[in-house]
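The following block was generated as part of the benchmark described in Methods. Ligand: LMY7XDAE.
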Amino acid sequence: MSSAIINGKEIGQEIRKSVEKRVEKLKEQGIIPGLAVVLVGENPASKTYVANKQKSCEAIGMFSELIKLPEDVTQEALLDQIRGLNEREDIHGILVQLPLPKHIDEEAVIATISPEKDVDGFSPVSVGKMMLGQDTYLPCTPFGVMKLLEHSGIEVAGKHAVIVGRSHIVGKPMGQLLLQKDATVTYTHSKTPDLPSFTKQADILIAAVGRANFITKEHIKPGAVVIDVGINRDENNKLCGDVDFADVADAASHITPVPGGVGPMTITMLLENTVQAAEKKLEQDKAEKNM
Ligand SMILES: Nc1nc2c(c(=O)[nH]1)N[C@@H](CN(C=O)c1ccc(C(=O)N[C@@H](CCC(=O)O)C(=O)O)cc1)CN2
């Protein structure tokens, strides 16, 4: 069997074109959607992701501002920066690049971002709303996976989705979004005994465990859709996912590559969420004017 490769770069570009049109519309009404990106320290991967986020914003006419803080910034100084951004009229979305240095309380930082500007969808308010199926900003990576499935014509309802991984930013919300589309969801993780006995039941397998080439053919039911959320380096320092692509490709009906699969969708959905935030703010301002 040969599998269809889901091209996240292409699908992401298509979505970005429609987001760009919405940016143009906002600009006609005097609004430039603005994203503030807070980067703490010198983590090389984080620096690359942040640079890509800024470049992607600028490419579709959005405004982006980088707030670069030293590795030893205090918790209070970081919270002050976020409180300041919460008040700014020209900033519609705020994100704090993760991971943060160990001395910083990540949960407190995320909880300080105003829910109206939480375009990463990580704050307790956003997570609660997502769980309840209410209107909110969805976390960009799981949101991007849902878009990949939709654009690839993959039906989710009635399917058995198995998630490998239980992180707050990918695994947990991923299962929730699939559940909301009527999939039957099983969560597994690095400590699940006899993992293949679970993953082999998956019509849709989401690998988000953070281990290079961890998922092999023995984990896959023939014809399964395999979505690789991992971003790792192998023993030769080559970028790779959680799925051993060469081993699994023939068994899967559809598969995402790394790079070029889920990764580009994460930034695409960040653009979508930020434009949504600017649109909501405009509507709110109009409603207040008419009161
Ligand atoms: N505040 C956040 N922090 C982090 C998030 C997040 O969504 N919000 N996710 C990850 C990192 N990340 C975005 O921040 C991210 C990772 C990877 C990619 C991507 O496009 N990957 C490319 C390969 C890039 C490369 O060559 O290294 C791909 O897979 O094709 C985008 C965004 C953790 N932190």
